[in-house]
User: Which sequence fits this backbone?
């Protein structure tokens, strides 16, 4: 990646005609470019990016395992300030210049069967999955990702106003927490009395703990590997009642012990790569339990999947792809309330130039260093 020593002149932001942006040109190939910032139309806007969260999808996009048309600007978890906005967009979205907004990744068409049926997260009305970070540079105006000082906001963007007195990296937790609310609460209809078991203590797992607790779950259990000890401790600090190290404990027996033989009413599978926990989830679930599958496994088959358990226990298997506006709103309200120390999930802020390091750290490619939630913060200068 090209290093650039110059610090962006913040005072020129209102009139910025150019933006720095990280452009992905091929698998594992990022470069810093300067690109023109377009004028806004009546129904669009320009966002000054304050922070862009990084998750497993960033690592997959960087590695080239997600379908993509390069070159493109990555970054699908934008938080920022409305820099310029057309009158119609301001009216539609209920925001104006200077407001801080969280931007949803998906840009739904609004009129396909999925959209009108209330499932806009599977909208394909704009020719495949259409959202920030996934549209190529060649599609005007090109600034479709948040690894940049400025990005374009399409007329069909979904934005949520966020209080400006919170640190940007805390506010940027709207994205993983939104996933927590959709996956651990909204989809499985979690409520008081439920036993919730979260498989995997990464940022999505921790977010699931926070959301399940906010929804009134009775008992929350989180599993992880031996190397996840710190994350499991954090899970307890954020509301989990019990944690299980699956490498040193018999997880199935522990779940039964902790639930008086009942099992988990809700199992949230958010571990990455290994399909093994998917098969195990059937054993952990209570009769009539709901299992939410949200961790991607590189399209690997699940060994030892005993489908009879789904039948005899009348289990509900629920696939989770993306987040919904109500879940994002629940996340933002919780962050703004200050009731939960959500900021403890945030471990790293990186300058734009360090995008590659940030992604590789999240993917576990940096020996001796671990992250939970990281942000790219364009206002930061390059690390020494
Ligand atoms: Zn993400
Ligand atoms: Zn649609």
Assistant:
């Amino acid at each position: 990646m090209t290093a650039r020593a110059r610090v962006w002149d913040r005072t020129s932001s209102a009139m910025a005609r150019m933006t720095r942006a990280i452009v992905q040109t091929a698998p594992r190939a990022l470069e810093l470019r300067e690109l023109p910032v377009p004028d806004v139309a009546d129904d669009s806007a320009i966002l000054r990016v304050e922070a862009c969260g990084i998750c497993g999808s960033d690592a997959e996009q960087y590695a080239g395992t997600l379908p993509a048309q390069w070159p493109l600007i990555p970054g699908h978890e934008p938080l920022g300030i409305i820099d310029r906005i057309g009158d119609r967009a301001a009216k539609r979205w209920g925001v104006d210049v200077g407001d801080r907004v969280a931007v949803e990744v998906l840009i739904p068409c609004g009129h396909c069967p999925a959209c009108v049926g209330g499932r806009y997260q599977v909208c394909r009305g704009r020719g495949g999955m259409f959202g920030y970070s996934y549209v190529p540079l060649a599609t005007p105006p090109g600034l479709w990702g948040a690894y940049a000082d400025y990005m374009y906001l399409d007329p069909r963007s979904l934005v949520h106003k966020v209080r400006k007195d919170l640190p940007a990296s805390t506010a940027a937790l709207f994205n993983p927490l939104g996933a927590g609310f959709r996956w651990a609460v909204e989809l499985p209809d979690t409520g008081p009395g439920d036993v919730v078991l979260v498989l995997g203590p990464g940022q999505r797992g921790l977010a699931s703990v926070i959301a399940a607790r906010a929804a009134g779950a009775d008992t929350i259990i989180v599993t992880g590997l031996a190397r996840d000890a710190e994350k499991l401790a954090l899970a307890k600090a954020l509301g989990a009642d019990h944690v299980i190290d699956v490498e040193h404990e018999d997880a199935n027996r522990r779940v039964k012990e902790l639930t008086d033989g009942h099992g988990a009413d809700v199992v949230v599978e958010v571990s990455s790569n290994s399909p093994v926990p998917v098969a195990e989830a059937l054993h952990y679930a209570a009769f009539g339990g709901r299992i939410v599958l949200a961790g991607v496994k590189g399209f690997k088959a699940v060994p030892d999947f005993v489908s009879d358990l789904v039948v005899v226990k009348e289990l509900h298997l629920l696939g989770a792809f993306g987040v919904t506006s109500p879940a994002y709103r629940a996340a933002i309200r919780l962050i703004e309330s200050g009731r939960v120390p959500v900021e403890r999930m945030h471990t790293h802020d990186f300058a734009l130039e360090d995008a590659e390091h940030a992604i590789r750290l999240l993917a576990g490619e940096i020996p001796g260093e671990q992250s939970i939630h990281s942000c790219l913060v364009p206002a930061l200068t390059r690390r020494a």
In short: The first strand starts at residue 18 and ends at 26. Residues 174-186 form the longest helix (13 residues). The CA atoms of residues 53 and 375 lie 4 Å apart. Residues 108-109, 112, 114-115, 120, 123, 125 surround zinc ion (ligand 2) (CB under 6 Å).
